[in-house]
Amino acid sequence: MIRPNREKKQTGAFYTPSFIVDFMVERVFYHLQENNLIAFDSFRNFQNSIFKLRFCDPAIGSGNFIVGLLNKVNSILKGFDTVENEEKDEFFYHFTSSNIYGIELDKASLDTCKNILKEQFPSLKSSDLPNLKCGNSIVGLDAFDILGIEKAEKLNPFSWKDNFGENNKFDVIIGNPPYFNLKKMVLVDENAQNLYDYLKSSHLWKNFFRSSSDIYYYFVKQSIDMLNVGGIFSFIIPNYWIENKYADKLREELLKRNILEIIDLEGNKIFKDEGKWLNISTCILTLEENTPSQTFSVAKNFFFESVVQKEKINQLFNQQFFPIKQSYLGKEKWIMSPYNEYLRSLEANTSMEKLGEISLVFQGLSPGVKDIFVLPKSKISEYSLEQDILVPFVSNSDLQKWLIKEKVEKQAILPSMIDSLDNYPNTYKYLLSNKERLKTGPDRQKLMKSGKIRWFDYSVYRNLDLFLSKEKRILCPYRSLTTKFALDENGSFTATDIYAILPVERTDIYSILGILNSEFINFWYSLAGKRKGRMLEFFSNPLKKIPIPRFEIRDVITPLVKELLKIVEKSDESEVDEVKVIEDKLNLEISEMYDFDFRKLGLK
To answer: Residues 379, 444: one domain?
Structure first.
């Protein structure tokens, strides 16, 4: 398997911390005991039960999860005081050699893993650990037919059947697979193209393949397919699959199984790279190969330091569990919240409309080389650029709640208004000085070659007509910690990092602005909208789904919103308290529209 920064991966910088491994192993053994697959009441019963179980890590790395499993077995053995150590060692040797399986792409990493195991567990020194194999868990031998021998060998194909026998299924699969977006990796790693081509064409994967999916989706699918009935799967993976549209096929596969628990570690930085925390929001997904139960358990939004022991995480985990009905979920984004029943009732509420039904929601233009086209007014004066091809321009940083910042000192050249550069000599001279940059980049070169753009055009004139209308609109950044919607009264142009909302009924803009900036919509969007880590992501589809009370209900807040805008427009710090008073009134009225009481639910 291709791994980004493989050399770093071998140092252990990206490996799962032991306290997470120990916690996951504890939870797996808990579920095994719940299913009566393992017994702890005596050495004989423990020995007989665990010898029936096969454990596998399909992406070994340096073996953290195998070490964690064996540490757990060792700790159980220590509890049997009446059993001789020699007998325990013999059992441990045979269990590890016969019941522990694993696959690792990189031979050097596999050798490192085996050495670590033999150093940490002296009774294994004479074992060659025969079931730890080198290969690619998700690439089968059909890769040779699809790619040819030379390309296939670079992927190190692996046959589960040839390596692990006819009975090649497992009772526990646990681990931490590689994470990277397949389509993006193709751009920086030539071997990723081989993997992309294989997954797209293989009969094993072609019905599951999505070009923009993450590689760990395939590890999850492969692993759950390799479980025995009643077997337990547990992976720590990024939590983006819960809502990513390209994970729809993965979600469908998971819903065929009995999901046991999803522990969202959102906000907790688990992995380090050269001493720096990686910004990856993760979750622990655990399921059972069985028919789905009515509900599964979710724990989310609790925080812990990486140095705490598993007792702390177990305590937090038990405190913050809530049930989710599996039947409520489908292939679309999963909403996992204690308020799911309320959110479902809101969808069925006939007094609500969706924002996309009463407004146009659209993204900004794509200049391609933004810093060439978007300039501060001082630079525009310096170059004496012709005014009739300039438009007001707002950047992400110019947006604040309610209004755009008072002084926006930028304008943009709008090349679509240029029929001939000869008519705009100063702009022509300026653009000509940047011609080489405007002609670089594979996307722009492709567009120019096909005749879709001129060398001085934007890459994409997305929604140009809507921007040319110069009408009042609501703007929001594509990513923010909280909801932040701003009224744009100047008909400004924006780039792709901003989304615009234009109400069908133009006079309705104030009530919609008030609703969007309410604490209720911030609450709703954090659950039912789109998130990445702690950030809310404001893209077209989730924005369009925002529930908005019908006009005759929401119009009552229009005077309050207009009053608030007048105060905010003054930009006087002395008015902050007055703004807060009006916001509180708005939030109270809006919460009543949604029949939602934050105080009763302990959210305030």
So the answer is: yes
Annotate 63-117 with DSSP letters as a single string.
-HHHHHHHHHHHHHHHT-TTS-HHHHHHHHHHHHHHHEEEEES-HHHHHHHHHHH
Q: How many domains does the chain have?
A: 2
Last residue of a domain, one of 304, 336, 368: 336
* pTM beyond 0.90: no
Taking alpha carbons only, the member of 268, 343, 255 closest to residue 312 is 268
Q: Which of 285, 306, 317, 314 lies closest to 176 in space, CA to CA?
A: 285
Residues 214 and 245: beta-carbon distance below 8 Å: no
The answer to whether position 603 is within a domain reads no
| 170 and 55 Cβ atoms separated by less than 8 Å | yes
pLDDT category of residue 304 using cuts at 50, 70 and 90: low
Alpha carbons 38 and 18: distance in angstroms, whole number: 23
Q: Which domain holds residue 437?
A: 359-593
Would you state the structure tokens that stand for residue 352, as one six-digit string?
Answer: 């609500």
364 plus 279 within the same structural domain: no
Cα(293)–Cα(30) distance, integer angstroms? 18
443, burial (CB in 10 Å: exposed 0-12, middle 13-18, buried 19+): exposed
Position 569: which residue type?
E
Tokens (6 digits) for 382: 């310096």
CATH number of the domain at 297, please.
3.40.50.150
Please enumerate in sequence order all residues whose Cβ is within 8 A of that of 137, keeping only pairs 6 or more positions apart, or say none: 1, 58, 59, 103, 105, 158, 219, 222, 223
- For residue 433 the two structure tokens come to 């000085």
Determine the Cα angle at 152 with ends 151 and 156, to 5°. 125
pLDDT tens digit sequence for 115-159: 999 999 998 988 889 999 999 999 999 999 999 999 999 999 999
Same domain? For 204 and 255 the reply is yes
**Which has more pLDDT, 58 or 183?**
58
* Concatenated DSSP letters of 192-213: HHHHHHHHHH-TTTTTT--TT-
Dihedral sign for Cα 163, 165, 168, 171, please.
negative
Looking at the structure, tell me whether residues 232 and 122 fall in a common domain: yes
pLDDT tens per residue across span 46-64: 999 999 999 999 999 889 9
Q: What is the pLDDT of residues 309-319, one digit of tens each?
A: 555 555 655 66
Same domain? 123 vs 22: yes
Q: In terms of domains, do 321 and 364 share one?
A: no
For residues 367 and 321, state if they share a domain.
no
Domain end call among 336, 351, 369: 336
